[in-house]
């Protein structure tokens, strides 16, 4: 009986809360998390100021100085966004570390509880196997034995409660593991966000450098550049409308073409992701033009395929799009491939889905880069001449 009481006493001790040493370590981590949260609040307040500055400048007249001020504010804002993201990642890693300590402590506790319970249950089982002869030999009277039996019943009752506690501990352990897993997944997403923001920061810097090179800090040259780009954009819409009518007849005559693409293939593998989306607010030149396509990150010189079968309406070079190809498909759909480094098709020809039509470009300063801030493929989709979001048409 003394043995049973001893095991039970030890068992109750191990049901005690987290040790002082572990508790101190967790408290220290939690304090670091609180400090990071305070830093984030300050950074977010600064980010809000830059947002207001950008909105204010966007409401003013379009000048070179305003555009540069917007780019500077966007660069500062993105830099702070990057710092916030890095702190969020660090904070989540600390939370995962804290959970790891608690999980380890809980696992050790459950393992010790199992061992002690095994001894305790074994002792109770041996006690239950006692026969009358052993009782007579072990105790001076039956009343003493019955008192021991009562104590044993009380301990058995406590044992039932302890078993429930172990089940509760197991459920809590699983909950902590699930939370840790979700936090790790969030860290991975934030890492991707961090990469995107760093790329956007580079785009803003390239955009600023482009304006300096093209205008040499002259407001008059900036106005001339803006007028040329906008005129080109306007002519683009008009030419596409005229060519689309002519192309539809040629497509109808070519019985080898698709009757009408219900979906478009990716012209290039988006393994590096999308740097700028349709009407993206992070587009460096959004104050001057809306971004009417998607920019697919890709190395200079990568092969570009036709998104669907169609008629090559033009193969040309312009200031806005650089080297670009327009393909007109059935049902009023047209696709544009811009900032190419080279061409692989000719105007007034037909291509099939996946045919290599050229190579990607976009590196500032290279042939055919146009208005570009870095290597990528600019891809547009037009429905009866109107720009639409390519993501609604692209499929694997």
Written overview of the protein:
It is a single chain. The protein is an alpha+beta fold. The protein has two domains: 2-214, no CATH class; 235-395, Glucose Permease (Domain IIA) (Distorted Sandwich). 59% of the residues lie in helices and 15% in strands. It has helices at 2-14, 20-58, 64-128, 132-138, 142-215, 219-253; strands at 264-265, 274-276, 294-297, 303-305, 310-318, 322-328, 333-343, 349-351, 356-360, 376-383, 386-388, 394-395. Strands 2, 3, 4, 5, 6, 7, 8, 9, 10 and 11 form a ten-stranded antiparallel β-sheet that branches. It starts with a helix and ends with a strand.
List the helices and strands and how they pair.
Blueprint: H1 2-14, H2 20-58, H3 64-128, H4 132-138, H5 142-215, H6 219-253, E1 264-265, E2 274-276, E3 294-297, E4 303-305, E5 310-318, E6 322-328, E7 333-343, E8 349-351, E9 356-360, E10 376-383, E11 386-388, E12 394-395
Helix pairs in contact: 1-3, 1-5, 2-3, 3-5
The overall strand count is 12
Helical content band: 55-70%
Most strands sheet: 10 strands, antiparallel
- The succession of helices and strands, N to C, reads HHHHHHEEEEEEEEEEEE
The gyration radius over C-alpha positions equals 35 Å
What's the overall geometry?
Answer: elongated
Number of domains: 2
Given helix and strand content, the structural type is alpha+beta
Low-pLDDT stretches are: none
Mean pLDDT: 81
The rounded distance between the terminal residues' Cα atoms is 72 Å
Tally of contiguous helical segments: 6
């Amino acid at each position: 009986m003394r043995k049973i009481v001893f095991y039970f006493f030890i068992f109750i001790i191990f049901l005690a809360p987290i040790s002082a040493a572990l508790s101190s370590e967790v408290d220290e981590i939690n304090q670091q998390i609180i400090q990071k949260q305070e830093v984030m609040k300050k950074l977010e307040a600064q980010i809000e100021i830059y947002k207001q500055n950008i909105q204010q400048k966007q409401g003013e007249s379009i000048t070179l100085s305003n555009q540069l001020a917007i780019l500077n504010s966007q660069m500062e804002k993105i830099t702070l966004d990057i710092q916030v993201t890095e702190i969020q990642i660090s904070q989540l890693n600390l939370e995962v570390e804290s959970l790891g300590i608690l999980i380890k402590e809980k696992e050790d506790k459950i393992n010790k509880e199992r061992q002690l319970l095994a001894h305790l249950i074994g002792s109770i089982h041996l006690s239950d196997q006692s026969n009358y002869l052993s009782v007579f030999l072990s105790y001076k009277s039956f009343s003493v034995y019955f008192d021991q039996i009562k104590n044993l019943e009380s301990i058995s009752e406590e044992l039932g409660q302890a078993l429930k506690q172990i089940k509760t501990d197991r459920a809590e352990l699983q909950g902590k593991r699930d939370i840790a897993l979700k936090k790790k997944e969030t860290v991975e997403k934030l890492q991707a966000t961090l990469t995107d923001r760093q790329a956007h920061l580079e785009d803003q810097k390239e955009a600023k450098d482009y304006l300096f090179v093209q205008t040499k800090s002259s407001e008059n040259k900036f106005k001339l550049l803006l007028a040329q780009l906008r005129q080109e954009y306007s002519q683009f819409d008009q030419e596409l409308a005229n060519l689309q009518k002519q192309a539809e007849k040629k497509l109808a005559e070519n019985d080898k073409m698709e009757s009408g693409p219900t979906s478009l293939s990716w012209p290039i593998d988006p393994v590096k992701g999308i740097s700028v989306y349709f009407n993206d607010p992070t587009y460096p030149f959004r104050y001057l033009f809306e971004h009417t396509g998607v920019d697919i990150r890709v190395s200079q010189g990568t092969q570009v395929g036709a998104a669907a079968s169609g008629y090559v309406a033009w193969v040309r070079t312009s200031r806005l799009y650089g080297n670009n190809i327009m393909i007109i498909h059935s049902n009023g759909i047209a696709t544009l491939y811009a900032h190419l480094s080279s061409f692989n098709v000719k105007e007034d020809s037909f291509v099939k889905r996946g045919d290599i039509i050229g190579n990607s470009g976009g590196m500032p300063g290279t042939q055919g880069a146009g208005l570009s801030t870095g290597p990528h493929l600019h891809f547009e989709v037009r429905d009866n001449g109107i720009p639409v979001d390519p993501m609604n048409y692209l499929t694997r």
